[in-house]
Amino acid sequence: MTGNPRSKRKLSLPLIILGGLLMFLAPENIWVGAVLFGLGIIVEIAGAVLRQRREPGE
């Protein structure tokens, strides 16, 4: 990934939004919905980790 903390924060917001959209738009009755919901959770966690992670020098 990138080493710039500012670009990590800029990337984290679209990841969190994308994860929320995947969870919101996942169909309820089909197994694909469960897969999309799980993928949405993973993407949101990745966005949150990028937002919270601090560099060793900070």
Folded structure, characterized:
With 58 residues, this protein is mainly alpha-helical. The chain has one domain. It is built from two helices and no strands. The longest helix has 22 residues, at 31-52. The radius of gyration is 14 Å and the shape is elongated. 7% of the residues are buried.
Q: What is the gist of this entry?
A:
The chain is mostly helical and 58 residues long. It is built from two helices and no strands. The model has no long low-confidence stretch (mean pLDDT 82).
List the helices and strands and how they pair.
Elements: H1 5-25, H2 31-52
Helix pairs in contact: 1-2
Low-confidence stretches: none
Fraction in beta strands:
under 5%
Average residue-wise pLDDT = 82
Largest sheet: none
Our count of domains comes out at 1
Radius of gyration using CA atoms only = 14 Å
Structural class: mainly alpha
The beta-strand count equals 0
Q: Give the overall shape.
A: elongated
SSE run: HH
Number of helices: 2
Estimate percent helicity: over 70%
CA-to-CA gap between the ends?
18 Å
